[in-house]
Structures
1.
Amino acid sequence: MTTHPFRVAIVGAGPAGIYAADLLTKAERDFELSI
């Protein structure tokens, strides 16, 4: 079985979006992040 990375989209690149992206990049999950 093939596993695909979890996909996350953050709408808006303001302070809250950047903060959320920073927290997600520190998570130990395989995911793709788009801002």
2.
Amino acid sequence: MTGNYIACHHCGQLHERSALVSGQRASCVRCGTILWSQGVLNSSAWLALVLTSLIAFIIANVMPVGTISAVGLKSSSTFLDAVAATWRAGYPSVAIMCFATGFLMPLLDILILAWLLAFSRKGQRAPGLNQLSRWLHVVRPWAMVPVFMLGALVAIVKLADMASLTPGAGLWAYAGLTFLLTGLSKLNSERIWLLAEQDGAVKNLPVTIDQAHVPLDCEICGQVTMSADSEGHCQRCHHHVHFRKPAHRTRTLAILLTAIILYFPANLYPVMVNTTVLGGTSSHTILGGILELWNLGSWDLALIVFIASFVVPLTKIVILGILIGRSAHGSRDTMMRYTRMYQTVELIGQWSMLDVFVVILLTSLVSFGPLMSVTPAIGAAAFGMVVVVTMIATMNFDIRKGWDEVDDDIEQPGYQPAATAPTFS
């Protein structure tokens, strides 16, 4: 059987690729995951959004996020000022994490999209398409502009009882950039290849299904490659692909244990230290910061920080622990629940970085020497590492292995493809 196929990234089910109309999407017949969709925007429209995002990004990082006035002095800060202040305060690990997630990764994301779309809209294959689409796949989860935007709002509330703060043009640019990047989040590497197909720049290569070969699913371009081995290279973008991630449970468990170890100092040690000429020095843990927001009357932001700093990390750790320790054989309904749990972890992964962004922004804004200052503490470094490590653990886990152990009437022997189930979005 020869044709164009697509495999579900969450259960491994092979599907025939059917033509969709604008606004329609195709979902997996086995686990319900959206396989691909026919959007209403073409490459030119996406490029316009990307270029608008680039302009907003430049403004957001050149103009101050805010200016505070206290004890007759003023202090303003951009995001890069906050990173530099954190480095000077003796916490290069925190500075590097924030620079990468708040500046470098979002910038690379935007520039890669702009380059690829500029050629695709003209029906041309972009130079470096294979490598750049792989970079886009790697960069995307680590671009955390929306998290920083929320962190800036929390920092403003925290400063309410310490000084007078005036929001800067950078803050408004970040607000606009947050909405733009949220829209662009749908434009992943597979979507880029799909747009290139529609523009005639690339083709989806036909595949012959036979029982002597296994389908290798490329997470970069969505191409299916049949191979006699459990690993190989995508026939279209040449990315190294596996039938299933090898030793995924062992690797995920080792990384998860590292996150659990880091979680204790992240919550027990202070994340920042406040110094004032009248009040002396006071240390704040994550829980202390939440209580401070609550006492200031900002119960809504206190709840958001509590969810981001406590609920989200614990949820990720608990869910990954359940997935690693699940029974060897499960029903389809059980695997559906596990798949939704895994998708939840993928979705919420980066939001725990909120507190770290709050700390670096306060470090830069509240810098009046011995009169008033905020400096990072060891808890911020540990908490940032918890976020990074849990995200890496999630990326190493392969939920498809659980589906391989499910015996249902949907998966056919010999990896025979199923018809997709189109629905309107």
3.
Amino acid sequence: MKTCMYLRKSRAEDLSDTTGDTLRRHRETLEETARSMQLTICGVYEEVVSGEDLYARPEMLRLLRDVRDGACEAVLCMDIDRLGRGTMSQQGVILETFKEAGVRIITPQKTYDLRDEMDEDYTELQTFFARKELKLIKKRMRRGVERTAADGGYLANAPYGYEKTREGRLPTLKIQEDEAVYVRQMFLAYANGEGAPAIAAFLNACGAHPRRSESFTRGAVMNILRNPVYTGTVIWNRRRFLRSGGQSPGCRKIENSREQWVITRGKHPAIVAQELFDRVQARMQSRSKPSGTGRELVNPFAGLIRCANCGGLMQLRPRANRPGGYLLCERAGCCPSCNFSDAADALRNALRPLLRRIPIQPDTPDPCDQRRERLLLDAEKRLRTQEGRLCTLLEAGIYSPALYEERRRILLTQREKLSEQLSRLSTATDNQRDEKTLTAEDALNGASPAEENRLWRLLVRSILCRSERGPDGNHVCFEVQLRCSPDASQL
């Protein structure tokens, strides 16, 4: 029987053991099971990741694709909850995939055939208990993290200038002096009037390197200057992360209110004095600009233009006493800046032929047509009212039958004329729409930057900007990656 082997270990499990030892023991157990059952292993899928989120597990997603494609007849794993113990919907995706493909789940204890009603019920029961166990594990871990933070321990990755250590059983930090010297220089330079870009350029010239990138940027310097850990303080529960849901593995960072923070004096030594840290924060506050939330968008290509060298988003920066502004990569020295107005015009001109090929249907009809139709409908309503009055006058004996018929013929003639006018109006409106087919280019004309940005985001996935300095100025070229083909049905 062709069988795939799936191995998974959560980072939160077996903290006293190494990941390699755990997976090795699991592999040996499964290989022994395969030999005893005479299974043919046709593929091995191995990963170290939590089973909580299906779409953050690339090997599991690859296994499900192979199961759907009929690559195996069974999947061998240590237990049902190794396949996943996240939400009911995600567990349902896994079990339904196995059931529809007719693929069995084999563990050292039992073989499950989800097409069998008893096995299906037993599997659903096991997945229910797996979810409950996950909730208990998360609850215990959260209590442990809260206790560690309250005792002054530090659980996150060590920030620049520190390295992780332990004080007894409590995780904490110790100073890494070759990096701490640059941290002190950053705080002193900023407190004495230097800007973050100048500090980043100085650090790069000195040969300093951050932990997760090749060089310091303005953003990296600002993050260090804002971090209270350098004063010996530990802050926990400052932010939380919400999963984006669906088939996206990403998550969204949300700042908690200050009342929810847990602020304690850490066990680790301070690199900078509290007084210096406060001076830096005061200067930052005096130079800070209001948040962009609620302000009008000015860059129609916001979030779309990326640097071709490093992949980072290009930012629109204003120019003192000059209109337009310029596009700048935040990574110092990565690529020359370019004039934003020229870049935006070039992109619009390049994309206009695409916009002309996309027909759109206007949301609102012509207001003149609306007014004419409303007047005609009002006139028809008045005629119906007059017909009712004719009947009343006839019944009251005020109108004779002959006079009633004469008046009624006049009203019927007027109604026929109104019906013809309404029909002609509807035909004329349809003809006008047929003669003038609006395109996405018409929507672009006169659109605000925010409306234009929404239009570009429908069409464009990203725009790579490559800027090079030449003897006659900067040369800029763009590579546009479209989100969809120019078909109105896909827009």
4.
Amino acid sequence: PEMVGHTIAVHDGRKHVPVYITEAMVGHKLGEFAPTRTFRGHAGSEKTTKVK
């Protein structure tokens, strides 16, 4: 609880991510709030329109 309101740099494996500590984060580990994967979207499918 004494760390609430502070910003801590958490390493995600590539760089340090600033994480602002709130009251709801108490009891969790800091790594849960530093995303490690970047979602680039699902693979696009080649949709072709067929004329019947």
